[in-house]
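[job 4471] stage=fold_predict status=RUNNING
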Amino acid sequence: MIDRATVDQILDTADIVDVVSDFVSLRRRGANWVGLCPFHNDRNPSFYVSRSKGICKCFSCGKGGSPVNFIMEHEQLSYYEALKYLANKYHIEIHERELTDDERSQQTEREAMLMLNEWVCQFFEAQLHTQSGEEIGGAYLAERGFSEATIKKFRLGYSPEDRTALYTAAVRQGFNRELLFKLGLCKDDGHGGGYDFFRGRVMFPIFNVAGKVIAFGGRTLKNDPAKYFNSPDSLVYSKRESTMYGLFQAKREIAKQNKCYIVEGYADVISMHQAGFENVIASSGTALTEGHIHLIHRFTQNVTEMFDGDDAGVHAALRGVDMLLAQGLNIKVLLLPPEDDPDSFARKHNTTEIEQYIEQNEEDFIRFKTHVLLNGAENDPIKRAAAIGEVVKSIAVIPDAITRSVYAKECSGRFGIEEETLLREIQKHLDKNREERYKQRERERRRKEAGLPAVDPQNEQQPESQPEPQQPEPQQPVAPVNGEPVTAAFSSRRLRQERNVVYYIVKFGMCYLCETEYDDGVKRPTTVVEFVYNEMEGRGLAFSAPTHEKIFRKAIDALAAYYADLETFKADAQDQADKQCEAELEKIDTLGHSPDSLQKAEADVRARLDVAVMKKIADFSTNYLEKRLCSDPDDDVRTTALEMVGERYQLSKIHSQYGSVVGERDRLTTLLPEALDNWVNAIYEEQIKQVQKQLKQVADPDQQQRLLQELQDLFAQRSQIAKLIGERVVNPN
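[job 4471] inference complete, writing structure tokens
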């Protein structure tokens, strides 16, 4: 368990822009940052990050949150694993006791797999520096020209020839043998033991975007039929989706240069990095998939595919590129000399020579495809028509209409065909593609309704006609609110009004609202949380949704810590302001002022800095509770708080620029009492409906009379509340 002080240090240190930038290429847009959402196939930037609020949110799929929540969502980690991740990122020391056997067994399988992969990676690294490792694995790496720094950067290693070296060491360390088998590191020998899968190979660990080891590639040093062995798919690794080799090491350079190079193999990536081109990645020996393209698109939309210059390399350049074009990426192709691959080319040339070759030979993909397909077809009308059709098909998958039009115009000149003819053919393909996407969505919808698993569209083999799946049995409508099933309209209304009160607690809980005179006759400043507490106590109110109650209790419990932290923050802010004031006063030219004007200048400086201090304190109070609730270990509390933080619309830029904007914080003295009154009014309405329902079911005159009197009292109470709604204002003085 991590102590509260350390948790607070982690939450205070973690910078949301810095954390998200490890996974998404962000661009500054006004006061926020924006990028492509990492949680869905985002083509247009819809993922916004606010440093001042400390949260991120996708306005398309809705995912995001605080730094902790973002890491939990993105890396599929538990709350405390996400805290450890951030602590490690910011070099915050965490003291933890050794896990017991019961606690170790309770860890999720995914976390256990990642722990095992990390340990195995360290094992392979250590084996590379043994005598046999240096003689065999080290000699191979030296022959490839990999430096010691490069070997450390990519954490290369060696799997010993010993049949059970890894299996024995891992079991002795206490790791579950079944996990060794699931990750493909070892095989079951059928006699209660196991043997190593990668033995006698140089090891290339594969990392996810966060730097976690998720799989391995092993290169044989013998004349084995299979030169490379790769880890099988597992809970933490998917060849089609998980990552691209070298992306963890290349992501910052890709974002910096706004461009990446795609090569084929591990050695190609490593040699290019060593040659100074650190924005190079590989698809780990598999064809590009939409999952890979989605990963690339997070960091750049400019991609150059680098291939061998032989026929195989040319055909490889033509495969799968339509998928890249369809995702809106700008594709170029670079063919190397026929005798070279990226690995050998990087070892033969220095950085300047490679840069010059790229500049001279990099070619736009459409032009490249046109050149390749038309080669040898000049005098064959059938081949020429087929080639033009393939080029038009590629242009049609490009999502941007202007880009399609530009390519159509260029191809018109190259092919000697009227532009209108090409545009008509492009439109035919667009219509066909749109129809295919619609059919695919309908198939997915029918499968979902039938409770069947989703099908990968890239591997999907659909029969010509499919039986229509049976429709599920109709169910009674239930609208859950914070885990509370709502079965009646007025229950739903009551919970909505209750939620509005909780919203102001989450957003502005520690903000100063007014002064309250207590029983001892002393007036004290009152925060939003304290005001709500007093009102609820006075009116006999209670939250009906368990999550709302938990949020309220956590807010009450945080008051003591808030007041202590507020005093510290005030002292620090005032100290900074005093130092700045002294510095600014020293710069005032006393000779150019009369005593009165000098005094006024000094007063202006102090007044301006006092206002700045007050704003800092107000911002501190505003963000204090919101920040903690959005990073709370309780899933319900954290999720609900994040929803509330992101659910209010922002004012348009026009209103912000040309109008006088009054924010919610400035109107709390009106908004919060109204929210409380509306909540009470909804409760009365619900009670009135319940009593009216009972009246219809009761035949006894005495009971009817009692219910009528109760109904009359409820109407009177609701009438009083109705007069207050929209009129009541708390006096802040």
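[job 4471] summary: Residues 651 and 661 are 9 Å apart (CA to CA).
[job 4471] exit 0
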